[in-house]
Sequence to fold (344 residues):
Amino acid sequence: MGLRGRFPRIAAFIMEIGCLAFLFCGALPVEAASSALTPIRAVVLPYITFAPFFIAKDEGYFEKEGLDVEFVRLVQPMAGVAEVAKGSIDMTQVGTRVGIFNAMSRGANLRIVADKGGFAGEKAASSGFLIRKELLDSKGKPDWQRIKGRKVSVDPTSFWGFLFEKYLVRNGLKMSDFDVEDLPVTVLPGAFDQGNVAIAHVTEPWVTKITREGKVVLLVADATLSPKSHFSGICFGPSLLEANPQAGERFMVGYLKGVRQYNKGKTSRNIDIIAKNTGLDTSSVADSAWPAIRNDGHMDVSGFVEFQRWAMKKGYLDSVVPAEKLWDPRFVEQANRKLGGKNP
Fold:
């Protein structure tokens, strides 16, 4: 057969290949769209209290829920609150600072949706006030006459300031009896060594790091001062509360899977994940006390209301946001219905 005889067959073959290529290329966007992940931006910092987030991301729990979760790290916590209120960031934490409650009282569409740390069920002190051992008397009690006027490191407007004042009142003291300054935690080991600070509020892993040599000891654990309180919660903004609540529910499923794995304790896998995401060595992670976080994500926000009342009396807060306007349980309720008693 000559070239002319073969040409129709060649042309038909080329057209057939071309059609298949066209159909294949046309299918790509549909397939890509079906596998696309919903982006979620969450303020997550390199601390042990954020461990369930690290676990959920590293184990693929968020991805299994169709989410691409980006961790946003901010130096100024209130910047995160403003961005979440605007909807440019989807999630942050709430609890220890008055700024977020002021934002809520001024109309920001923000709600607490899940537990991120509390004192109930805490097995060891994950946070508290440390004191130089030499400032204790022969009975192991603070020698207040020697401590008065000295430096105390705590933010007086924060939840930790609220707890410290509660402790001082029990001992017939007040905040003005001390030189109060909120020092960066990284300078505290040296400040204690040099005698420049008498008492300081710290969280893990710094509780373990600073007390390791025995020169500084735990004065009082936060859990002792407010045993039923939650100190941190997850906060959603309008992007998840209203614009895409289904993504919020899926985020909560992934998060609670992370919480349940976290609550299996100091497994080698959990320690490795936390160490990688916090920059801590594995021994520091293993030696630290881990905060208590509820498997079901539910929380009692009455401690936040009590904190707000204190802050309002101090002039730090405009007004008190009531419990019913703080807490939105629908996301944990939906996630628990999906998860039931199942572990990841």
The first strand starts at residue 38 and ends at 43. The beta strands are 38-43, 67-72, 91-94, 111-118, 127-132, 151-153, 179-180, 199-203, 216-221, 230-236.
